[in-house]
Write a structure and sequence with these properties.
235 residues, alpha+beta, Glutathione S-transferase Yfyf (Class Pi), Chain A, domain 2, four-stranded mixed sheet, 4 strands, 57% helix, 7% strand, Glutathione_S-Trfase_N, EC 2.5.1.18
Length: 235
């Protein structure tokens, strides 16, 4: 559990336009944790601090807490919940079944949804159309879960009355979602076909902590292409 003096003890290595870094920024803001943000320039050679902190993947985000590095965005978010469990809100369900469900959908976002969006972002012609269709199908599965799963149905967020693990995992990608739609001239989340998901996204993006952490989609489109041409940030 975290102690006093958090400001001096917490650092975040990241790139402001990375959706995975955005996830960590949102989690830290929700918990009210002061930290030092260290911008990593992906166009330059990787810094000694980054290579030392994440020698396996050599990617951001990396949270450094009391000198100890934690890597991978959703592992970091879970670490934040456990390290600062005395701080509200709770980012993870207390019930073990609900927690397992949350982890399942987080894995779905990272293993299925994000790769299809990334492929659509760089796709052309038939390949672009195929990846857009795959992405829409993935979003429809999430819409169905919002409608039928007892863990989420009738609640404003995946985490219930407050945002939680899935909200951060999926919501952290919101600028990327908008960027893909604009770059490919497509609609990934149709308000008519996905009313629950569309309403959730609007609700999530109106939160002050989200507005402060989220990059501008217009800037995201041009810069993200350059970022993705280099080795991608970790998830």
């Amino acid at each position: 559990m975290a102690t006093e003096g958090e400001k001096e003890q917490v650092k975040l290595l990241g790139v402001t336009l990375s959706p995975f870094v955005v996830r960590v920024c949102i989690a830290l803001a929700l918990k009210g944790i002061d930290y030092e943000f260290i911008q990593v320039n992906f166009m330059h050679p990787k810094s000694e601090l980054l290579l030392k902190s994440n020698p396996v993947h050599k990617k951001v985000p990396v949270l450094i807490h009391n000198g100890k590095p934690v890597c991978e965005s959703m592992i970091i978010v879970q670490y934040i919940e456990e390290a600062w469990e005395n701080k509200e809100p709770n980012l993870m369900p207390k019930d073990p079944y609900y927690r397992a469900i949350a982890r399942f959908w987080v894995a779905f976002v990272d293993d299925k949804l994000f790769p299809s969006m990334r492929a659509a972002f760089f796709g052309q012609g038939e390949q672009l159309q195929k990846e857009v269709e795959v992405t829409v199908t993935n979003f429809l599965l999430i819409e169905e879960a919002l409608r039928t799963n007892d863990c989420f149905a009738g609640k404003p967020y995946f985490g219930g009355d407050e945002i939680g693990l899935i909200d951060i995992a999926l919501g952290g990608l919101s600028a990327f979602i908008t960027g893909v739609e604009k770059a490919t001239d497509s609609v990934l989340i149709d308000a008519e076909k996905m009313p629950l998901l569309s309403a959730w996204l609007d609700r999530f993006c109106q939160l002050d902590v989200v507005k402060e952490a989220m990059p501008d989609p217009a800037e995201y489109i041009s810069v993200r292409r350059a970022m993705m041409m280099s080795p991608p940030t970790s998830n």
